[in-house]
Amino acid sequence: MKEAVLVVDMLNDFTLDSAPLKVKENAKIIPNIKALLDEKRKSGTAVIYVCDAHAEDDKEFKIWPKHCVRGSKGAEIVDELKPQEGDFIVEKTTYDGFYNTELDSLLKQLGVKKLIITGCVINICIMYTASSAVLRGYEVEIPLNCVSALDELSRQCAIAQFKNVLNVKLS
């Protein structure tokens, strides 16, 4: 079964010390994601970066501090995980990597049936993107050492949803 790795929101505005929405665990998962990408690229697996890219006046800024404004340094992928030749980048404006993006059409064009979803954070963008993937018929795997959480309760609630509602493979 043809698969792709999604790297969700591993961006400066969620990772750097100066980030407006710093996710402390991101630093810990970067080496794990890098190792997974190195392994999967060797076998020809597609790598797709799914990245927050907001307008200056995005309505999401009523909920969260201003972050990942399209074209800003904060919206850039962290240096340690920079895309390589042949990788793809899909910009999103919501928690869901499929909503109003070209992600689904890209996956269909590539013949992908299974997604390995990595990145931040497990109960927000990972959850919404995984849910959308399942509803579209994709098989989904989430390597737990390659996703970050804001706190342990959020992690456990998301894991329960993945197991009990979405039938996502957790590894």
From TrEMBL:
Domain Isochorismatase-like per the UniProt entry, residue ranges: 4-164
GO MF annotation list: hydrolase activity
UniProt keyword list: Hydrolase
Membrane-spanning parts: none
PANTHER family xrefs: ISOCHORISMATASE-LIKE DOMAIN-CONTAINING PROTEIN (PTHR43540:SF6), PEROXYUREIDOACRYLATE/UREIDOACRYLATE AMIDOHYDROLASE-RELATED (PTHR43540)
Protein name in the entry: Isochorismatase hydrolase
Species, as recorded: Hippea maritima (strain ATCC 700847 / DSM 10411 / MH2)
Lineage: Bacteria, Pseudomonadati, Campylobacterota, Desulfurellia, Desulfurellales
